[in-house]
Design goal:
Blueprint (H helix, E strand, L loop, with lengths): L2 H28 L3 H18 L13 E4 L7 E4 L7 E6 L5 E11 L7 E7 L6 E5 L13 E5 L8 E2 L2 E5 L33 E6 L1
Antiparallel strand pairs: 1-10, 2-9, 3-4, 4-5, 5-6, 6-7, 8-9
Helix pairs in contact: 1-2
């Protein structure tokens, strides 16, 4: 197989992977049952990790499923996006590189001391909402670099309504760099570090 054909095949496979992720989140948004939607989301993610050629796992990695905390409805919120001072920043990656984002607002989480998270927009063709976060579970029960809640350019979009963005931390997931150094992912900047633990969503370790 020529290098050109290999590259073409890889990109087509990646497009298929992202299409399936978009479809997975569309199903979540259309569901009236958050718990059932999370169960379906878990099943689809496990299938993609196990079977797809674009899985974040290394090809030789044995895998029987990702690890999640039980669904906790107290970690599902619909919150308005508040105005915040304009901020353009380059968010460093886990390895090399950085990505330019623009802060478009912030949200207040109705937990504890009511911490805030910045809401970012990917400053590139296509754009997209990006909400990463770190919390007190990092390096213990979750990846040290934090997790993602929304990354709509990649399909991770829980929806919105007149009351604001849907932020369901039961759908929080690890970036691809958690699983292999082949990946380099933008990590949560300082404004998105929570002092409290978020005991919902994907946990470590995945099941080998």
């Amino acid at each position: 197989m020529s290098v050109t054909l290999q590259v073409m095949t890889s990109f087509i496979a990646l497009a298929d992977y992202r299409r399936r992720v978009h479809e997975m989140y569309a199903s979540v948004r259309n569901s009236q049952d958050p718990v059932g939607a999370r169960d379906e989301w878990v099943a689809v993610r496990d299938a993609l990790f196990r079977d797809h050629s674009q899985s974040p796992l290394d090809p030789a990695e044995s895998f029987t499923g990702l690890n999640y905390a039980p669904y906790d409805p107290s970690w599902r919120f619909v919150v308005p996006v508040r105005a915040a001072p304009a901020l353009d920043l380059l968010i460093p990656h886990s390895a090399s590189g950085q990505t330019r984002f623009r802060r478009i607002g912030s949200v207040v989480l109705p937990v504890g001391s009511r911490p805030t998270l910045d809401v970012f927009w990917l400053d590139a063709y296509g754009g997209g909402i990006f909400v990463p976060f770190r919390d007190a579970t990092n390096g213990i029960d979750t990846y040290g670099g934090g997790r993602y809640l929304l990354d709509s350019v990649k399909g991770a979009d829980l929806g919105s309504n007149d009351d604001g963005l849907v932020l369901d931390f039961n759908f929080a997931y690890h970036p691809s760099c958690t699983y292999s150094p082949r990946w380099s992912c933008p990590l949560a900047p300082q404004g998105n570090v929570l002092a409290l633990p978020v005991p919902a969503g994907e946990q470590l370790p995945w099941r080998r």
